[in-house]
Amino acid sequence: MNKEDALISLHKLNYVYLATNKCVIDDWEKIVQLGGLTYPQAKLLIILKEGGQATMSQIAERGLWHMSTVTELVNRMDKEDLLRKQIDQIDKRVVKVDITEKGIEVLNHTKRLYFKNSDIFKGLLAMDKKDLDAAFDVFASICRNTKGVVGPCGLTTALETAENPKCNCLEVLNSLDWSEE
């Protein structure tokens, strides 16, 4: 490929990424509101459900948030009994956070709403799996070719993890009654 084609490809890749990311986030934000959550609240519940108990700094790192954002979010959600804060008995400066049963119920309800109401999910159902797999392979190849120069491509590992999710999404999906469709 020549330099001009590479430049145009870079622009296209950036716009495809940004547009796809915006579609997915807008779709998820719309659904979590139906479940009575905000996007950050749903994201925090997912972090705790999938990763288990975490310190405030671990939450900030995983959520890509500033500590003040985490503190405010955790305090609000603790009052709503969606999560539980505990002061570490060894180091009193450390606060550990865990999801509550109510938080799990709210998150599972939100996931059910997502599968039933998501435009993205419905759109993917209408697509050919081979086409999607080919698209993922292309993105992984781009990542390997560009990141391989400076280190391993995180997308390859992420795609492997995505194909074997640790969340309970498949369980929630399979529990839905699709007969009314």
Automatic annotation (TrEMBL):
Every HTH marR-type domain range: 3-141
Pfam families reported for this sequence: MarR
PROSITE patterns: HTH_MARR_2
Coiled coil: none
Gene3D superfamilies in the record: Winged helix-like DNA-binding domain superfamily/Winged helix DNA-binding domain
UniProt keywords, alphabetically: DNA-binding, Transcription, Transcription regulation
Lineage: Bacteria, Bacillati, Bacillota, Clostridia, Lutisporales
InterPro entries: HTH_MarR-typ (IPR000835), WH-like_DNA-bd_sf (IPR036388), WH_DNA-bd_sf (IPR036390)
Designated name of the protein: MarR family transcriptional regulator
